[in-house]
């Protein structure tokens, strides 16, 4: 019989026999590992709701991909995202979130994340831009971002964008059931370091689905076997922010809202993001 410690995070359902998931989680918790609470495990119905939200989220970014061009302002990108979202019965999660004034984050070149769309920010040939959008549909959240290269850019920026996408893919491959969040970060950081890139440490991925931000924090650096246990039914983002230079960042002092994050040496940065559900066989993307 498995002992049940006091003050634990995971309890079996009252009156129900222990499931295989119960046994696995309790085994790791008894070994002193950080495990999720049961409310982080989404039901099949909740996962389907997040999946539907992810379909709209993907449609938003597809619409941006069709229309983004040299000479477009980032305010126009916000208008495209907001209109598509609302037409499909969804709500932009970013709008008015903790004072963020717009519907989408548009982060150009050295802006790492949380760039605020503006009429005066006009895309130029050679820019790289991250468009990050979160959808709420019927109360379910889905979160994803893509990089776009505007016209023809430098080989250095092209490589940065490519490697950042590879970091996302490698991080997803490292996310296994009964593995740990640190496995993801270790894989991402190892790949980025091959190119002498900095992996941002001050921001991270996160649980998502019923709220905008849930546990666990998905850091993109670190050691294998650390962080929270990854259990089937967990939903979270992986979103490595890869800087061409230092991993350090700062908040733009000229941003009156206090949101825009800049790379520490003001070299370009790139980021890709998906929402994933952990299954018994690995992660499944919910934001294609």
Structural commentary:
The protein is α+β, with helices and mostly antiparallel strands and 288 residues long. 28% of the residues lie in helices and 23% in strands. The protein contains 5 helices and 15 strands. The strands form 5 sheets. Strands 1, 2, 4 and 5 form a 4-stranded antiparallel beta sheet that branches. Strands 3-12-11 form a 3-stranded antiparallel beta sheet, with no helix packed on it. A hairpin with a 2-residue loop joins β4 and β5. α2 (44-67) packs across α3 and α4 (155-174) packs antiparallel against α5 (181-193). The N and C termini lie far apart (43 Å). The mean pLDDT is 96.
SSE order, as H and E? HHHEEEEEHHEEEEEEEEEE
* End-to-end Cα distance: 43 Å
**Total number of strands:** 15
Average pLDDT:
96
Radius of gyration: 19 Å
Unreliably modeled segments: none
Into which percent range does the helicity of residues fall?
Answer: 25-40%
The quaternary structure here is single chain
Main beta sheet strand tally, sense and closure: 4 strands, antiparallel
Put simply, the count of helices is 5
Binned strand content: 15-25%
Overall shape: it is: globular
Could you write a compact summary of the structure shown?
Helices cover 28% and strands 23% of the residues. By secondary structure, it is of the alpha+beta class. Strands 1, 2, 4 and 5 form a 4-stranded antiparallel beta sheet that branches. A 3-stranded antiparallel beta sheet has the order 3-12-11, with no helix packed on it. A 3-stranded antiparallel beta sheet has the order 6-10-13, covered by helices on one side.
């Amino acid at each position: 019989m498995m002992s049940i410690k006091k003050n634990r995070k995971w309890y079996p359902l009252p009156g129900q026999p222990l499931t295989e998931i119960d046994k696995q989680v309790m085994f790791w918790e008894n070994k002193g590992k950080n495990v999720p609470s049961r409310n982080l495990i989404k039901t099949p119905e909740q996962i389907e709701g997040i999946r539907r939200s992810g379909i709209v989220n993907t449609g938003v970014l597809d619409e941006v991909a069709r229309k983004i061009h040299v000479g477009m302002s980032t305010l126009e990108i916000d208008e495209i995202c907001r209109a598509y979202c609302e037409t499909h019965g969804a709500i932009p999660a970013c709008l008015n979130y903790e004072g963020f004034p717009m519907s989408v984050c548009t982060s150009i070149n050295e802006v790492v994340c949380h760039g605020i769309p503006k009429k005066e920010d006009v895309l130029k040939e050679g820019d790289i831009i991250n468009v990050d959008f979160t959808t709420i549909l019927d109360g379910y959240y889905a979160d994803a971002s893509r990089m776009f290269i505007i016209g023809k850019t430098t080989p250095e920026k092209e490589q940065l964008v490519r490697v950042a996408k590879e970091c996302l893919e490698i991080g997803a491959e490292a996310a296994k059931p009964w593995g740990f969040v640190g496995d993801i970060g270790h894989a991402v950081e190892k790949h980025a370091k091959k190119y002498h890139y900095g992996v941002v440490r001050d921001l991270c991925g996160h649980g998502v689905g019923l709220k905008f931000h849930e546990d666990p924090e998905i850091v993109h650096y670190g050691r294998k076997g650390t962080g929270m246990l990854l259990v089937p039914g967990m939903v979270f983002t992986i979103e490595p922010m890869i800087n061409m230079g230092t991993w350090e960042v700062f908040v733009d002092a000229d941003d009156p809202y206090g949101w825009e994050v800049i790379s520490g040496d003001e070299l370009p940065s790139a980021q890709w993001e998906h929402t994933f559900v952990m299954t018994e066989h690995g992660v499944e993307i919910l934001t294609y």
